[in-house]
Design goal:
The chain is α/β, with parallel strands linked by helices. The chain has 3 helices and 25 strands. It folds into 2 domains: about 90 residues, Rossmann fold (3-Layer(aba) Sandwich), CATH 3.40.50; about 110 residues, Hexapeptide repeat proteins (UDP N-Acetylglucosamine Acyltransferase, domain 1), CATH 2.160.10.
């Protein structure tokens, strides 16, 4: 049974913890966080801040998952864990539907009600959140976040670190560039470049956005 450390102690971490509880081959050893919000989350101890990760790797757990919603922070912590030697595990809800022909990276979180269809490719540390759908042949870049209720039609491409807001819809074959944000409820009918925020029906670029 894999001893697993959860990195994060906020609300997203609670959802990930519940998914891990349903995995028979996983034992949760606790959580760590940069700025711990409390001494425990659900029934699990917050063991300390990120500085204790090397010691935990040596003595307690070789497996981890980053349970942090912010894409930039999740990427930084993913890289840090790999440097320390941790193996990243996936947290895939038993109430999600994931095609056996989908390719799923490491450190991926797939929430209840999500659907990932045939030949989709999901990069490392991606979040496919509650009730969202990723249709056939989509390509989701590392550390992207598909928010609850967002829907991606076939052959959509999402760049690294992009955030697709709640209830957004993307028509077939459109591309969203790396580190861009699609606003909640937007409808994407044409390609969106990297490092911008786009919103509306149809979605249009409103401003330059975050970068990695």
């Amino acid at each position: 049974m894999a001893q697993v450390l959860v990195v994060g102690s906020g609300d997203h971490a609670k959802v990930v913890l519940e998914i891990l509880e349903d995995m028979e081959d996983v034992s949760i050893v606790g959580c760590v966080a940069k700025d711990p919000e409390s001494f425990s989350i659900l029934d699990y101890h917050v063991l300390g801040d990120d500085s204790i990760l090397p010691a935990l790797y040596r003595t307690t757990a070789k497996h981890a998952i980053v349970a942090i919603g912010d894409c930039k922070i999740r990427l930084a912590m993913t890289l840090h864990l790999k440097e320390l030697g941790f193996s990243l595990i996936n947290a895939i809800s038993p109430r999600a539907v994931v095609s056996r022909r989908a390719q799923i990276g490491d450190g991926v979180a797939v929430m209840a009600g999500a659907v990932i269809n045939v030949d989709a490719e999901i990069g490392d540390s991606v979040i496919v959140n509650t009730g969202s759908t990723v249709d056939h042949d989509c390509r989701i870049g590392r550390c992207a976040h598909i928010a609850p209720g967002a829907h991606l039609a076939g052959r959509v491409q999402i760049g690294e670190g992009a955030f697709i807001g709640i209830g957004a819809c993307l028509i077939p074959r459109v591309k969203v560039g790396e580190w861009s944000t699609i606003g909640a409820g937007s409808v994407v009918v044409r390609d969106i470049p990297a490092h911008v925020t786009a919103m509306g029906v149809p979605a249009t670029v409103h401003r330059r956005s975050r970068s990695c």
